[in-house]
Write a structure and sequence with these properties.
Elements lengths: L9 H10 L26 E10 L4 E9 L5 E7 L4 H16 L8 E4 L3 H4 L1 H9 L3 E4 L9 H15 L7 H17 L11 H10 L1 H28 L6
Parallel strand pairs: 1-4, 4-5
Antiparallel strand pairs: 1-2, 2-3
Helix pairs in contact: 2-4, 5-6
Length: 240
């Protein structure tokens, strides 16, 4: 109408459309500020994924990893020259096959950001099919996804940047070697300096260790809070 030189107020257009049943219902979104992210207190409860970029000498490549928030175990990944919703599905599927031999544990949650791959219908239909709950971090809050971003930084620092990757095939070899080393050999300070596989062996078979690790985590959280509060106090910022 505007292109034809007819000027009309938006409210008038809305009233005309509504009276003729031409208006679409308003789709309301839940206020994500009211949503609280699940706090994992055991393995296989909450997993997370994100995308990181790995340049090679002749092509840009993309790594999508699936990692357990609690045990830090790297479940699986998709490494490709594309980063589509299909690639995101392949990452989850690789994790399911490697870790669970195709049988998804009941009640497991996947945490993602709001990237186009993760909000796509294709990706969410796949999660529903696999009975995986999907949890989004709040928009524009990358700190809520800080664990997976820290993980990707570690992978790049410890395995990627120390290798000169010429092409995609070399990248595949580097990533698969990193996958094994990270899970089986590399110690993690948040796991009391065990590798994820060593940690899971202790967790599954030693009730005393499970009790000890709960206290260990609480002490770490208290220490982090104190450091944060001291920092803000020095910056003269009030922390609730």
């Amino acid at each position: 109408m505007r292109n034809s030189g007819i000027l009309i107020a938006r409210k008038t257009v809305y009233k005309i459309m509504k009276s003729n049943n031409l208006s679409l219902p308003v789709h309301s979104h839940r206020d994500r500020k009211e949503l609280k992210l699940i706090a994992a207190d055991k393995p296989e409860m909450v997993i997370e994924t994100d995308i990181t970029y790995i340049p090679t000498k002749n092509v840009m490549t993309y790594l999508m990893c699936i990692k357990d928030i609690f045990s830090k175990e790297w479940y699986g990944y998709n490494y490709n020259t594309s980063c589509t919703a299909k690639d995101a599905i392949n990452a989850v599927n690789d994790a399911i096959m490697r870790k669970f031999q195709g049988n998804v544990p009941e009640g497991i949650t996947l945490r993602t950001d709001n990237g186009p791959q993760y909000i796509s219908r294709e990706f969410n239909n796949y999660l529903k099919l696999m009975k995986i709950r999907h949890e989004y971090i709040e928009r524009e809050t990358p700190t809520e996804n800080g664990d997976i971003e820290s993980f990707h930084n570690s992978i790049k620092t410890d395995y990627i940047w120390v290798s000169e990757i010429d092409n995609f095939n070399e990248g595949k070899t580097v990533i698969e070697n990193a996958f094994y080393d990270y899970n089986n050999i590399r110690p993690h300070s948040t796991l009391d300096y065990y590798s994820p596989k060593q940690f899971l062996d202790k967790w599954d078979n030693d009730s005393g260790f499970r009790e000890y690790y709960g206290e260990f985590l609480n002490n770490m959280k208290d220490s982090y809070r104190r450091r944060r509060n001291n920092y803000y106090r020095r910056m003269r910022i009030n922390v609730p």
